[in-house]
Fold this sequence. Notes:
399 residues; alpha/beta; Aspartate Aminotransferase, domain 1; Aspartate Aminotransferase, domain 2; 2 domains; 40% helix; 15% strand
Amino acid sequence: MSLANGPHTLAIPGPSMVPERVLRAMHRPSPNIYHGPLIDLTHSLIPDLKAVARTEHDATIYIGNGHAAWEAVLANTHSRGDRVLVPRTGSFADGWAEMARGLGLDVEMLDFGNRDPIDAAAVGERLRADKGHEIRSVLVVHVDTSSSIRSDIAAIRREIDAAGHPALLQVDCMASMACDRFEMDEWGADTAIVGCQKGLMTPPGVCFVFYNDRASKARERADCVTGYWDWVPRTNPEIYFRYFNGTGPTHHLYGLREALDMIVHEEGIENVWARHARIASAIHAAFEAWEAGNDAAMELNVRDPAVRSHAVTAIRLPERATELRNWVESKMGVTLGIGVGMAAPDTPDWHGFFRIGHMGHVSGQSILGTLATIDTGLKALGIPHGPGALDRASQALAA
């Protein structure tokens, strides 16, 4: 018998659960795009987006997903043939690197595997060896959504500065922004990108690029940029349609306005970070209990608690991860994330990974429900696991 009737829980690492009030804000007729309330609403988004990114610099809006943001930031800061350094901790670094190659950039990878964060000292060592300053950017994924590793952006900035290297520090914050603490200006990131569909709690379709004066200077020599991706006319435009180089994503703007009200003006970004940290601690505590069983094969992908994301958790469950995902979805109404980039999709190993998204509109109650569902699935399927996971999670939330 299935118990999946009723409200469904989407526990994947994006798109995240959309609050009802965001959906209600979007449920309206199409607005006037030439004058009226929509123009003022759009102007109001920029300072709040900058508050989430923790920057006093510029913010631009694009219609698109994270891949669009990758292309936008690369196009505005590079010329064909430029070299970029990509420290890798999972498959999303691979994707950004592939985007760079498609723009004619020379990509150099530093591979740190799928279980460990970027070694900032190794980045610094490579930059010190680059005597001719051929490397124009270091492209860093703050939290890799596939591996759930969080890397230290401030430490990488310190290494770049200590090397006396002029490379830009460009940061992918798709999984982390409005979930894990990110301080663009304080940590010295020159650009940051994010989409609306994860921590910002809005349906997919809009992405954002934040950039500082150093990145703006790089724009002056960039020959990859085209009219659509150019951030100059999109930044503080006098004519409204230039925000989007055409018709704006009208209903997304209404939803985003509601989401930013919740994040910035009601809960506050510091409290948002604290909520995500507490919820992540409960998830990690539960899995540490499950993996402690004598015959348990399940384990957290990231072994060091200090570098685990507060937005997404990747799990290893050899051979049976797909079986567990299918059971909790069909029998209990919870959708877990597939494993991405940890093994080739056409191999048996691919069925040994899954992920939990705990970003955006999540509460202690919702995450306890997800953990209890996983616990039920482990029992129903006879998957070996240690005891006391739900007690451990409850204690973490009650601490």
